[in-house]
Amino acid sequence: MKKNLKQKIVIIIGVLVVFLYGAFFGFDAPRLGGGQPLLNQLTQHIHLGLDLQGGVHLILQVQVKEAVSTETDNTVARIEQDLKTAKLTFSQVTKPDATNHPETMHIEGINPTQSNAVRSLIDGKYSNEYDISGGGGDNSLTVTMKPNIEKALDDKTVQNTIEVIRDRVDSLGVSEPIIQQYGLGDNQILVELPGISDLDRVKNIISTTARLSIHAVVGGPYPDEQAALSSVGGNLPSDQELVHGSGSMATGSDVDSVYVLQRIAIVAGTDFRSADPGTDSNTGQRTVHFTLTNEAGDKFYEYTSANVGHSMAVVLGGRVKEVANIESAIRDSGEIRGSFSTDEVAILSKMLRTGALPASLNYLEDRTVGASLGADSIKQGVTAAIVGVLLVMIFMLVYYKGSGINADLALFLNLVILLGFMGFSGATLTLPGIAGVILTIGMGVDSNVLIFERIREEMRAGKAPSAAVDQGFAHAWTTILDTHVTTIVSAAILFLFGSGPVKGFAVTLTFGLAANLFTAVYVSRVIFDTHVNNLKTGEAVSI
Predict the structure, then answer these.
(1) Is residue 393 within 8 Å of 408, Cβ to Cβ?
(2) The whole model's pTM is what?
(3) Where would I find the beta strands (DSSP E) of 384-534?
(4) What is the pLDDT of residues 203-220, one digit of tens each?
């Protein structure tokens, strides 16, 4: 019996040491001599949530129709190429309402004698992803993206956007950011960055599309769009587009100009492998040096080899940034030059490295939580927790006398285990998380009260101290287990379907209750058994 008790005491001390280490050091090795005070160590390894230390809160909506439009733009180009390769006659492939219905395309001007051949070709190559209708007397076909394909593309766009935002936020060095889908099917994203106060900088880094692409130049610069349209006979071909230049870098002056470009890019955002800021040694201009992927490099080399002497335009964010003549074949690297500031060139490089957003973003909600509000929350929450714990400990000592010490030790160990878990896991402590700690304390005390009252009943029935303790724990165990398991299941559901602070509450409550089962039953029983073993004959348990 005594040997078993010693083993159990060793286990309890071991658990206490492990979780004390976790609370102060986490998984870091402690630095001896000249180290930080223990209180600082504790605050460094317990991550505070947005509501406790302040930060940035954003709700974004992804414009998924842009991704659909980009996909159908590529499909338009593929259909045109397929029809030309098959030597089938048509006038043009258009998107009649590109703004509201980018998923719909028309193949117009089909030769009536070739309508069956066109329909057969489109059915064979595109019917898995698109619904195809028409082919009647108007000599046209309508090609519409299937709803399930569009839905899958929307979901993929949102997930890709989350990944791009996560990569960009990592560069801010934010600990425990929350970046996740938000809302029910509205293509919304929740972003919470604890400890960050510069809202404008965050918005600039997150929402910069950095949609860089390189296009063949058909004509320009022209002073306005009318002049640009006149250069192509008044009707812009479907495979070309008008793009404005952004000042001196494109035109040599600050006057806005218009270019006619091939709509399909030679290389685009996903083709970039790396990008680094630099400075042109001759002009002193800040530059971004980029490298393409191998596949894109081969494509770029093939194009530039065949078009030496022609112009190509670097388009960034929908505007021409630079126009260059192709003097020789280029394989996989180049530079973007411009009158960038130091911050601009650094941000542009970062955007290109992390990849362009697949679609632009709308800000539905943006606000900062002040640090002072967070400090007040911490102070009030910690004060409430300390006062609550002290009052409960005093009550247990007064009402249950010597056994109250048993309950207080179990309560203290429960808090140590909970803090150690937070330190090891890196879980974020939120204001609702503090509420979870207080609720855990309440349930821990409730478990002790349940056990103590059962022991009192057994003692009033005339049982010896050891038998009373045995029966007290045996009768209370089932009830304690039931209440803890049902509450843990509820907390697990909150964790799965909640977000932010709600998850913080679920985390502290779940692990706090698990710790309760260990301290209120196992630790408390060991203390009782040790006390009973040391009682003199005829002496009663102090309870």
Answers:
(1) yes
(2) 0.57
(3) 428-429
(4) 877 776 556 778 889 988
